[in-house]
Amino acid sequence: MSLKDKALAVRDNAYAPYSKFKVGAALIAENGETFVGCNVENVAYPEGTCAEAGAIAAMIASGQTQLMEVYIVADAPMPVSPCGGCRQKLIEFGAGHVPVTMATVSGLEQRMTLADLMPGAFTEEHLENT
Ligand code: THU
Question: In this predicted model, what pLDDT tens digit does every residue of 2-28 receive, in sequence order?
Fold first, then answer.
């Protein structure tokens, strides 16, 4: 199954009764394994988690720490853009050149690198004087 099809499939399992906005994310780790995640909302709204966070958590739980490619899909008029918090989470585990495909269920796709999505990111280098 392609990364796109995995993201589309996991999106079906999203728990989004409040926003009704289901998101699926799939990523490929350094060892070639694929991990998926969907958004999981909560009645206490800020406790909800994004699809990207779920996929990253699954990758880390399996012992992988580097992501090589990401695919995110939702039913939106334009390709779904990861939120600022998820950009920071993706940068933690992916190099700047990592491609992120943002997509709609209708087939629109926009591809950007992590560096393009997060210019001027706060990184480990900022901690070097500590
Ligand atoms: N959401 C994601 O899971 N990923 C994104 O890239 C954008 C937003 C979720 C959070 C919330 O459950 C719903 O979409 C509406 O914001």
Answer: 999 999 999 999 999 999 999 999 999
Q: Say what the pTM is.
A: 0.97
Hey, which residues are catalytic here? 52
Lining residues, ligand 1, CB within 6 Å: 16, 19, 21, 23, 39, 41, 48, 50-52, 72, 80, 82-83, 86
Q: Three-state SS string across the chain, please? A: CCHHHHHHHHHCCCECCCCCCCEEEEEEECCCCEEEEECECCCCHHHCECHHHHHHHHHHHHCCCCEEEEEEEECCCCCCCCCHHHHHHHHHHECCCCEEEEEECCCCEEEEEHHHHCCCCCCHHHHCCC
Domains and CATH numbers, the chain: 3-127 (3.40.140.10)
